[in-house]
């Protein structure tokens, strides 16, 4: 088990995955909430069966997987459906993430969650690392990456905590605005050394 669990978060388009991937090159275990969220609704899981029963069989693709896009549109448009889905999935995701943190072998590990603050996951980690970018950068990156409209991205931003509030929870910050991959790697290396000191110290 890792001696230190660090929550890694940032708004959409901030570069969380890129940063986590760089830390992974140092042999650091990464527990990713998005990956866990997909695992708990894989074909054959009780959660997927409950979703099909609640929303209808049309939310399951021909290959047996969840139609995530269709479900996302549904819950964004209906607050009751969103609450029902969160009540089903959040405990499963939390439990799976906790198990993976216990199984982590690296000196410290990361729990990567876009909604670390919003869902209160920050309470179950020892430190919080925020990947910070300007809202304009988030919108530009996400529009080009996901083929979304500016309005769609703005809606996602509005559903997340503000940049200021997220930073108020941060023990450490990586600035990823107009940042080259080399500059990003330098910031990661400095923090990696810092985290190892905390673990050894």
UniProtKB/TrEMBL annotation:
<dbReference type="InterPro" id="IPR001977">
    <property type="entry name" value="Depp_CoAkinase"/>
</dbReference>
<comment type="similarity">
    <text>Belongs to the CoaE family.</text>
</comment>
<keyword id="KW-0173">Coenzyme A biosynthesis</keyword>
<keyword id="KW-0963">Cytoplasm</keyword>
<keyword id="KW-0418">Kinase</keyword>
<dbReference type="InterPro" id="IPR027417">
    <property type="entry name" value="P-loop_NTPase"/>
</dbReference>
<keyword id="KW-0547">Nucleotide-binding</keyword>
<dbReference type="GO" id="GO:0004140">
    <property type="term" value="F:dephospho-CoA kinase activity"/>
</dbReference>
<comment type="pathway">
    <text>Cofactor biosynthesis; coenzyme A biosynthesis; CoA from (R)-pantothenate: step 5/5.</text>
</comment>
<dbReference type="Pfam" id="PF01121">
    <property type="entry name" value="CoaE"/>
</dbReference>
<feature type="binding site">
    <location>
        <begin position="13"/>
        <end position="18"/>
    </location>
    <ligand>
        <name>ATP</name>
    </ligand>
</feature>
<comment type="function">
    <text>Catalyzes the phosphorylation of the 3'-hydroxyl group of dephosphocoenzyme A to form coenzyme A.</text>
</comment>
<protein>
    <recommendedName>
        <fullName>Dephospho-CoA kinase</fullName>
        <ecNumber>2.7.1.24</ecNumber>
    </recommendedName>
</protein>
<keyword id="KW-0808">Transferase</keyword>
<keyword id="KW-0067">ATP-binding</keyword>
């Amino acid at each position: 088990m890792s001696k230190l669990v660090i929550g890694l978060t940032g708004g959409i388009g901030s570069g969380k995955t890129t940063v986590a991937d760089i830390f992974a090159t140092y042999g650091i275990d990464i527990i990713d909430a998005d990956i866990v969220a997909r695992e708990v609704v894989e074909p054959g899981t009780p959660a997927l069966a409950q979703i099909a029963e609640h929303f209808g069989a049309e939310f399951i693709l021909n290959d047996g997987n969840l139609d995530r896009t269709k479900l996302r549109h549904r819950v964004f448009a209906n607050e009751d459906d969103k609450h029902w889905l969160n009540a089903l999935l959040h405990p499963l995701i939390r439990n799976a993430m906790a198990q993976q943190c216990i199984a982590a072998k690296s000196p410290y590990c990361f729990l990567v969650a876009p909604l670390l603050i919003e869902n209160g996951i920050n309470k179950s980690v020892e430190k919080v690392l925020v990947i910070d970018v300007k809202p304009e950068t988030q919108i530009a990156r996400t529009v080009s990456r996901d083929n979304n409209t500016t309005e769609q991205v703005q809606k996602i931003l509005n559903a997340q905590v503000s940049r200021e509030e997220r930073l108020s929870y941060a023990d450490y910050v990586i600035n990823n605005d107009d940042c080259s991959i080399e500059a990003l790697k330098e910031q990661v290396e400095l923090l990696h050394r810092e985290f190892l000191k905390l673990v050894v110290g």
